[in-house]
Write a structure and sequence with these properties.
Elements (H helix, E strand, L loop, with lengths): L14 H34 L1 H8 L2 H27 L3 H28 L1 H7 L4 H16 L1 H16 L4 H24 L3 H27 L14 H34 L2 H17 L1 H19 L3 H34 L8 H15 L2 H16 L4 H25 L1 H34 L7
């Protein structure tokens, strides 16, 4: 077992306590990461000006389109690892780990070449304003060249979490976040590298975080101590990993396609609209961290409990997570309704009245629908952990449809108000699919475990 005892079995014990304990550890790391993102963006705004800030913000959708796929694939690859851990099949667990490393290496090389080549045409196709496009390109091309680093960090941290350890990835993330802020200041204020420096700092800090995860696995996790036999190729392992990982990656990317279409509509409304959405999104991302933490928790929780064939415990965990998410959603709405404008002023000066008003409006509309957002994260990741990643793709399609319909039909008529309604529409459509999907998946697994259905 792990030398420091951080591996945690999520198949036994009180579900509320297990979920809270695991999620809170993740939450601190994600909070710190978003805090660094806010500081990172604020540094760009304060030192390089509004255009550099807005240019960086205009890349958010396409950044999520590509990096979301990377994160989704890695999280999907970790599901068989979590399931084999829950089943106490450690030999197969190590084989999945090595095969995931091989697949991530291939994906990283291919994606870096293709995405970097098409980076500028994508920004042009998205109608990025002329005043912002050079800033956007200089930032996002560096991020895309760091795709191999993104795969490294996300696979290793997802693997550690799959074994029930949510604490150490958080500690490594905090170190990387602090480094990122320091490098931002050095590269921008001392070296005068501008927006390139901000992106380069992000890539380096993620590399350092990934190296910390690698050293931790090699030195501390005895269950992942690899032998030559663990590296022997088994096509069935590749097939299972791809069946889990690619749908999860596509789910992120398909969801992001809707965001890209929406961002194109935002770009068409002008620089002030881009600035308002960039600002509101930064604030919203910070307040949405608990939903992300719950989602990541439920993926591991679902994987381990399916591996242990403990569906009652799994369902109890779902109920507990929904309670947690709903209570937090109400609190977040109240805070953003009263203080959303104040949070936006972290990035914008008081004389940017129109941008501040629109950013606050965006935050109010979105936070009003945080309970549906909580359900999206909880149920989708739980289904993925249960081994049915294809449902995540379909949920992503529903989100894409929601944002695309608003962008194409409502934005021309309602303007910025329609932008505020896009994500809520996406969350509601996704929930309409995910809730029945969970019932279907759970019933199917119950029949499989009871020997009523054959597994092909």
């Amino acid at each position: 077992m792990q030398k420091n005892g951080s591996i945690k079995d999520l198949t036994v014990g009180n579900p509320m306590g297990l979920i809270m304990g695991f999620a809170v550890s993740l939450l601190w790391g994600m909070l710190f990461q978003q805090l660094y993102n806010i500081i990172d963006t604020a540094i760009v705004s304060w030192t390089l000006g509004k255009e550099a800030y807005s240019g960086m913000g205009s890349t958010g959708a396409v950044n999520f389109l590509i990096m979301g796929f990377c994160m989704g694939v890695c999280n999907g690859f970790a599901i068989p690892i979590a399931q084999r851990f829950g089943a106490k099949d450690y030999k197969s667990m190590r084989r999945f780990y090595t095969h995931a490393i091989i697949l991530c290496s291939i994906f990283a090389i291919v994606m870096t070449i293709i995405v970097s080549a098409f980076c500028r045409p994508i920004l042009v196709a998205m109608k990025t304003p002329d005043s912002l496009i050079e800033y956007a390109y200089k930032y996002i091309i560096v991020i895309f060249l760091g795709i191999p680093v993104t795969y490294m960090y996300n696979l290793l941290s997802a693997t550690i979490r799959a074994l029930g350890d949510s604490k150490h990835p958080v500690q490594f993330l905090i170190v990387g976040s602090i480094l990122n802020i320091i490098l931002d200041l050095i590269f921008i204020l001392v070296f005068h590298w501008g927006i390139f420096g901000a992106a380069f700092a992000t890539v380096i800090s993620q590399l350092v975080t990934g190296i910390q995860c690698l050293l931790f696995i090699r030195k501390k996790i005895e269950l992942l101590k690899l032998s030559k036999q663990d590296w022997e190729i088994d096509r069935s392992h590749f097939f299972i990993l791809l069946n889990m990982g690619v749908p999860m990656g596509l789910q992120y990317s398909i969801t992001a396609i809707g965001s890209v279409i929406l961002q194109t509509a935002i770009n068409g409304l002008g620089e002030d609209a881009v600035t308002a959405v960039t600002t509101a999104s930064k604030v919203a991302m910070f307040f949405c961290i608990p939903f992300d933490a719950l989602g990541s928790t439920m993926a591991t929780y679902g994987g381990q409990n399916v591996g242990a064939k403990n569906l009652d415990h799994l369902t109890q965990g779902l109920r507990a997570a929904i309670k947690i998410g709903s209570i937090y959603s109400v609190l977040a709405f109240i805070i953003l309704s009263f203080f959303g404008r104040n949070f936006a002023m972290i990035f914008l000066s008081a004389n940017e009245v129109t941008c501040l008003d629109n950013a606050h409006l965006f935050l109010i509309y979105n936070s009003l629908f945080y309970i549906p957002l909580a359900l999206v994260n909880i149920v989708r990741f739980l289904i993925q952990g249960m081994g049915y990643s294809m449902f995540a793709v379909l949920a992503g399609v529903m989100e894409m449809i929601g944002r695309s319909l608003v962008a194409t039909l409502l934005v021309p008529k309602l303007g910025f108000t329609a932008i505020c309604l896009a994500s809520p529409m996406a969350w509601i459509l996704a929930d309409a699919f995910l809730i029945p999907a969970f019932i279907i998946v759970r019933n199917r697994l119950q029949k499989i475990f009871n020997g009523q259905v054959e597994v092909y």
